[in-house]
Write a structure and sequence with these properties.
This protein has 295 residues and is of the alpha/beta class. The protein has helices spanning 13-22, 38-42, 51-57, 68-76, 99-110, 124-129, 141-151, 166-194, 199-206, 214-225, 234-251, 256-270, 282-289, and strands at residues 3-7, 26-30, 46-48, 60-63, 90-93, 115-118, 121-122, 133-138, 155-162.
Length: 295
């Protein structure tokens, strides 16, 4: 059993923490920003008033918060994680944030003697609930080996990509691919529907061929049914694509279709969809096409 301070129990973090509890680990939480989930406390979790206090009680500190500034605040505030780190502790940041800042965060954390991994995830809420996440890890081989039993309680495809920052680079790459797949499925279903075919049957046919993908399977179904409650919010995918484009600009890399996908997400936000699931990108395509596939 490992005592884990889990910081960030939102759509993804809450089921991830629950799976760690199911695996027999002791979970502790900070209530500095919001109350710990009642279910996790009922299952043996312990709430502390500050991040510092939770860190002091834990061997491993896992972060699952929305963006780079939140990670910085949790780590480096006066009563944050770093204020209570010792050489026997480990920080695992499972948020999706800036790779360059991640490298800086890792350097500061390791000055305390503690270990640091960046370990962002893919798989959405369904993957988090089913402990089936893909986990992309950056850090040392020794830290990865120490963390692996915990990571296997939350995911299935777990890869040490490289040194600190490599996990976040991999996650940004993942988000490019996911966004462009959502765009492709959106365009295909709107085209098929407006041309007179049943989009549900088109999707069924395509799933048996080379066009099949997890996006067509899961998000294509969401698009046809119009079920856009967030598994992964448009606001968060916009953040990830902005990370991709800012990184590409610094590297001199052209990402034209990533830029277009971001424009479509921005249009959804203007339509009031900042908190829609990212599969709702189809609504931007539908708006531009004057046609909804859900008749």
């Amino acid at each position: 059993m490992t005592t884990i301070a889990f910081i960030g129990t939102g759509i993804m973090g809450k089921p991830m923490a629950a799976n760690l509890q199911k695996a027999g680990h002791q979970l502790v939480f900070s209530e500095a920003h919001s109350a710990a989930p009642v279910e996790l406390i009922a299952n043996g979790g312990i709430a502390y008033p500050t991040v510092k206090a939770a860190t002091e009680a834990a061997e491993v500190i896992i972060l699952m918060v929305p963006n780079t500034p939140q990670v910085a605040a949790v780590l480096f505030a006066d009563d944050g994680v770093v204020s209570a780190l010792t050489a026997d502790k480990m920080v695992i940041d499972m948020s999706s944030i800036c790779p360059i800042e991640t490298q800086k965060f890792a350097e500061k954390v390791k000055l305390t003697g503690a270990e640091y991994l960046d370990a962002p995830v893919s798989g959405g809420e369904v993957g988090a609930v089913n402990a089936a996440l893909t986990i992309m890890v950056g850090g040392s081989e020794s830290a990865f080996a120490r963390a692996q039993p915990l990571l296997t309680s939350m995911g299935k495809n777990i890869t040490l990509v490289g040194d600190n920052g490599a996990g976040q680079i991999c996650k940004v790459s993942n988000q490019i691919i996911v966004a462009l797949n959502i765009e492709a499925v959106s365009e295909a279903l709107v085209f098929a529907s407006k041309a007179g075919a049943d989009p549900a049957r088109v999707r069924e046919a395509l799933m048996g061929g080379f066009a099949n993908s997890k996006i067509l399977e899961v998000h294509g179904d969401r698009m046809i049914k119009g079920t856009f409650d967030p598994g992964f919010k448009i606001a968060l995918h916009k953040k990830d694509l902005n990370l991709a484009l800012s990184g590409a600009a610094a590297l001199g890399v052209s990402l034209p279709n990533t830029a277009k996908a971001l424009e479509l997400f921005e249009q959804c936000s203007e339509m009031g969809g900042e908190n829609w699931d990212h599969s709702a990108m189809i609504r931007a395509i539908e708006s531009q096409s004057n046609h909804e596939i859900r008749q």
